[in-house]
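To whoever picks this up:

The parser on our side crashed when reading a file containing two proteins. I've narrowed it down to the boundary between the first structure block and the second sequence. Both blocks are reproduced below exactly, byte for byte. First block:
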Amino acid sequence: MTYIGATKTMSITYGTQSWTQDVSAFVGTNQAMSFSIAASTGANMNLQQLRNVEFTYTVAQGSVVANYVDDQGNTIAPSVTTSGDITTAYTTEQKNIPGYTYQSSNGAAQAGNYTVNEQTVNYVYTRNQGTIDVTYIDQTTGQVLTKKDLSDGTNDPANYTTGADIKSYTDKGYELVSDDYPSQGAVFTDTPQHYVVYLIQKSVVSSEQKQVNETIHYVYEDGTKAAEDYKATPLNFTRTVTTNQVTGEKIYGEWQAENGNSFAKVVSPVIKGETPDQAQIDEVMGVTADTTDIEKKVIYKRNQGTIDVTYIDETTGQVLTKKDLSGGTDDPSNYTTADDIKSYTDKGYELVSSDYPDGGTIFTDEAQHYTVKLKHGIINETDKKAVNQVIHYVYKDTGDKAAEDHTATLGFSRTISTDKVTKEKTYSDWAADNADSFSEVVSPVLKGYTADQLKVSEMTGITSDTADISVTVSYTRNQGTIDVTYIDETTGKVLSTKDLSG
């Protein structure tokens, strides 16, 4: 025996025979029911084949499907199906779906009762829009070269990378400093994304050289050669030429002595049985890149080694000190530069180079010239400032706060370089950390009140010297009016008028 709730029919199968009866009239009552067969044919006898029994009915089930779709009908989250006894209550839920905003629902009600037929509730969402901006900044000038503004649906790829734009600038002579934009591209999100690409104007440094020579001729009184000419180590001078690859501008440095700016004294060579008219050629000081080659002559009429070590301040180009050593040929000099170098590093100098042998040297027949180069050590520090903007919103009549203050801050930085030798400090220009202007601010709308300033305009040209800015927006209560007119209907005349305001 089978009961079908949807059609409210009872079926009985006996052998190969089946009988069906509509029992909807009995559903929901306690009325007794019997089931009989009036007649039959074949092997089934016309006998009472049934007996009264007690029937138990199970309530039919209904179902509700909640779909989550975008405004194009595309599924954006798994559907949720619930079921329960028909006529009992059901509820469905709105989901928080990342990247989407709920708009409306259609189909069945969000809450109701189960029915025999399946019900469908469609929750409809719209795609959120994301924004990305990429700012290209010339770090040399602080100027914005260009700004890329991108927008699309959240979770969509930006389909943009910085490679091509960076190459266009490096082709013009720029050099990449930093790029915080993802190398494989970004994805739009609910939150605006800001990226910065810093470039500098690339400079190529080359050099120009000049050389000044000193030659000493050794001759007998008759003019014939007494010894090979003395050719001093040439004094080499160099200056830098810095070429800006973007602008093409060239900047020339000062001429710098690479190995000193003086020719040391030169002891005349010993020739047995001969005495030179000059035991030595004195030191030539103040040699510059513009000095012409020097030639001198020593005449022998019929004999000691020297060493000089020159300490040069490369920052100023000045000679700090000079050690003149002398002694017999092949004797040790008994001098090293370690103590003198330490005395200068203790004062803030840094060693650049020294061509004097670490363990000392020996005197030879020829004068020896060595140079120790030092430079001023530098300490760099960062100095910061902030400029604040506060907008107060108050009621004009009481001065009480009408709305929360609006606050904004701009940061500025500069570099302080301290010379460890002279203690002199040099300051770079103040530079804005992010921006040099305060954006326009629209005053809040307060019901029943009017602001004396609908907006606080954008403030540009903010510098590190700008004082903190305070602006007050006052709200005045709006006024209403009422008039009451008294009329004599007999004559039609106005008896009086009352004017009220508040």
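<<boundary where parser fails>>
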Amino acid sequence: MLYRVTKIVLLAMLTSSFSQAVYAAKDDLDELQMKLSNQWTLVKNDRLRDIKTYARLESGKQYRSFKATVMMKDTKPETLVRFLLDFENYHKWYWQVLESKLLKKVSPTEYYLYLVHKAPAGLPDRDVILHATVELQNAARNYITLKVEAVPDYLPLKPPLVRMVAEDLQFKFTPLENGDLFVES
């Protein structure tokens, strides 16, 4: 009988301590998780590298948008654009890109490219076809723009890869008088 009472008391203590631990963990997560709206919210401010990142919820969409700004010291916009247009080497430095290749060069300012992104363990990798256009600096506009939009129907599907229908990016490169380059994406 004493064994049974001890077992019940022990079980009750364990159950109550687990529920408190779960409650505390949930409470901790609520404090740590950022509440996003459709307005840009600062997510990270890296003062050392002068990089700021933002996020927001997209109205009517099931995903978040991200924005970043960075001040690049002593950098020419042409150098950075050349680097970003080196599509064949994206897999060497672009986060989680397994494969990258230029599909078509329409002009010096318009391209189609193909990327394969590594997915988390247990999920199939993703592929995406992108249409990239460059708007050059001119007398009316003192910056260069690189726009990238997903074009999911440009090529047939390649199972087991999952085709991404959205990977839209826009970079704005503004050269400053001191030789630095302000980048917004």
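After patching the parser it read the second block fine. The longest strand covers residues 97-107. Residues 19 and 25 are 10 Å apart (CA to CA).
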